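Researcher: I'm preparing a figure for a lab meeting and need a structural model of a single chain. I don't have an experimental structure, so a prediction will have to do for now. The sequence is pasted below. Please return the structure as tokens so I can convert it later.
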Amino acid sequence: MRGFSRRLLAVGAAVLVGVTAAPTAAQAHPKKSYVKVGYFTQWGIYGRDFQLAKVQQSGAAAGLTHLNYAFGPVTAAGVCDSADSWADWGVPFSDAQSVDGVADVAGQPYSGNLNQLAELKKKNPKLRVLISLGGWTGSAFFSDAALTDASRKKLVTSCVDLWIKGNLPGLTTGVAAGVFDGIDLDWEWPGSDGNVGNVIRPEDKQNFTLLTAEFRKQLDALSRKTRKHYDLTAFLPAAPAKIDAGFEAKKIFKYLDFGTVQGYDFHGSWEARTNQQSALRVPAGAPDNPDFSVEVAINTWKDRGAPKNKLVLGIPYYGQGWTGTTGDLFAPATGGAPGKFAVGTEDYKVLKNLKSQGFKLHRDWRSGHSWLTDGTTFWTYDDPAQILQKTTYIRSQGLGGAMMWSLDGDDEKASLTRTISAGLWTPWR
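Model: Understood. Here is the structure written out token by token.
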């Protein structure tokens, strides 16, 4: 890994000459370690055929400090529950699908992804695993659950009981204790629109702060008994309007270990022209004003009082695509490009092969984004070179690290995760 790190950092230094005048990482942060957070999706074991064994076998696990398991919903009753208990603790995995290479057997205490997470932690003792609560389709009732002191206590108690204490329904008490090392709050979004049907209130902004305080209080109380620290993190939006509507930046970071900032979906196939989805800076000639970028998002959080060393930049492992276009940036398009699992999106592991199919790669180093086009189809995405530019940005800005959505989009060699690990490598860890 160290040789790999040196080669990537050398490439990064070459491509970034003239792009930024920021100090080198050694000058800016001589003794800083970075978090590297990868999301693993519960449902990925089905159509995507992506098991936690592949996170281990590809080498991705070795490059992470945290793995977020997505998602655990908040129910209409205001408690934590499993979205799919079969995936979480029921499904048996074969020897080829298991992290430790041993097949699950009838009668073992529990199976499913949670057992595989436990096996992954045995292979990677420094890896911390968090349960991510909510998500795009699981946030409908967060506002109700956060509304009063009693409802907040009820929600947090249920989440800690199920996920941290490991009290899985119908199984031995505490059977999955120790699988999770903390909780990631993925409420999309307090105080502003998310998925259709979400409950939204103006007071969500203050209630989110109170909810983080209650999570921190109960996790710390458990820590005094177990003598373990439990992480509390949150997934945070990029849009300034959503930040202002839902988050008290100066207050919430008193309770959070760090927050992951969405660094993608700035634009996508829901729009009628091609664009960037994850640029570091707003590109020259961008038709939207104001516009979105990593720089806009991070600066907004810092301006609102968030500590920069607790801001973790989200990086996409997929691209946004359009078809019926000339292939130029900011060109009109007729719709989303075909994707395997959804129109307008495709995994990096697929997009990386398009250059051999007649697509031409374009880069804008100053703005920090890249795209592929064959003249009629356009994909904006991040590849290892672009990601290395982002790790340089993370270092130069003194940020807390990088987050990856999601691990199943990477290739079999975990090229993107290895690049992030190398770009944020510190020899003193």
